[in-house]
Amino acid sequence: MTTATVGAPGSAKRYLHSLWLLSGRDLKVRYSTSALGYLWSVLDPLVMSAIYWFVFTQVFSRSVGEQPYIVFLIAALLPWVWFNSSVSDFTRAFNRDARLVRSTAIPRSIWVNRIVLSKGIEFVFSLPVLVAFAVFGGATVGWNLLFFPLAVLLQAVLLVGIGLLIAPLCVLYTDLERTTTLILRALFYASPVIYGVRDLPGVFSQLAAFNPLAGIFSLYRVGFFPDQWHTPSIVIGAVMSVGFLVVGIITFRSLERPMLKEL
């Protein structure tokens, strides 16, 4: 997840050690100041899932997704929480620790990577919710569940790329923080969280494939719902994830110096 060229194994080891320490600090701060601690990693997506499940199964007649719908929903909602919380934190990644960012000798990409890692750990902590509903909801598990780690990897790559792009821009252009919040709200409904890519008609299904989250969410779901495999969105999602990483690295390297001056 690094963006700087590491000249020696020792440098890589120091970077990874620092990344782990910073990510651990984030988790300790989050959990030590909360009475419920770890349970928040479970309660937040659980409450969101319960609300959408109730609305789309008890209030309205649902024509999207698959049964059990709660498993279909949670399989995408949990990674969405990882994505949403990470991107939100990217907007404040450098301003929050401005003094330390200016003085550190560690590649400054670490302030992006630590968010991806810490939020990713929280995502892993929330997976028992998915497991519990899959077991008690009677979901069928197939060999396609092997694609789950690939989905995690692609999402991490996508997030690092987006973070390296957004984080320095938010330092230079402060209005981008609020703009990002608005975009995330719209992106939730434009992403196949409460529905699947295959539920979209005609051209909308083709357009949805260019949202990298569509392919990633499909990979999360295929272990429980094989029919959710959608080759165009998965291939495009993988290519776009790598593309965002490349663009993010290039952008970060060009904006790092002006960003430090602004800090």
TrEMBL record:
InterPro entries: ABC2_TM, ABC2_TM_bact-type, ABC_2_transport. It comes from the Bacteria. Its main location: membrane. Keywords: Antibiotic resistance, Cell inner membrane, Cell membrane, Membrane, Transmembrane, Transmembrane helix, Transport. It is a multi-pass membrane protein. It is found in: Cell inner membrane; Cell membrane. Residues 36-255 form the ABC transmembrane type-2 domain. This is Transport permease protein. The lineage of its organism: Bacteria, Bacillati, Actinomycetota, Actinomycetes, Micrococcales.
